[in-house]
Amino acid sequence: MAATALVDLNEATREVLVLIASDLRRNRVFLRAELDYANALLITADRGRLQQVILKLVRNASDATRPMNDRPIDLLVRVEREEEGGVRLIVKDAGARFELQKAGRLFEAFLTIETDGMGVDLSGNRSIIEPWR
After folding, report:
1. DSSP 41-63
2. Its pTM surpasses 0.85
3. What is the CATH number of the domain that holds 70?
4. Tens digit of pLDDT for each residue in 51-65?
5. Residue 87 sits in which domain range?
6. What is the number of domains present in the chain?
7. What is the spatial distance between Cα 73 and Cα 94, in angstroms, rounded to a whole number?
8. pLDDT tens digits, 38-50
9. What's phi and psi for 34, nearest 5 deg?
10. From CA 55, how far away is CA 42, in angstroms rounded?
11. Closest by CA position to 20, among listed 48, 50, 62, 49
């Protein structure tokens, strides 16, 4: 079993964004990060595995915007507290639209909206995230 500890979702996300920033710039992706530094947003998680999920989500969002050479490429990463006391990480891109009927299958292996992708990325993340729910 993975080692869990209290992790500030803001800080874990910031570290991932610093790591991937040069790749985003190279791919002409404009990153807007909205992190809540005024409040520690603590969750119990395995920091390394959590950061793997964040990195995969940001990379997937960046990849989804690549075919869009005719307009600016925007990527939003936001961390916020939910009213119920939980925390939320939002990764929003301006890429191809995700069909609503596929939403329930988002973490299935090989599901993709890309014409040349295999869709293997998010399936492993479900096993990382679900124990924290």
Report:
1. -EEEE-HHHHHHHHHHHHHHHHH
2. no
3. 3.30.565.10
4. 999 999 999 888 876
5. 5-94
6. 1
7. 7
8. 889 999 999 999 9
9. -120, 90
10. 19
11. 62
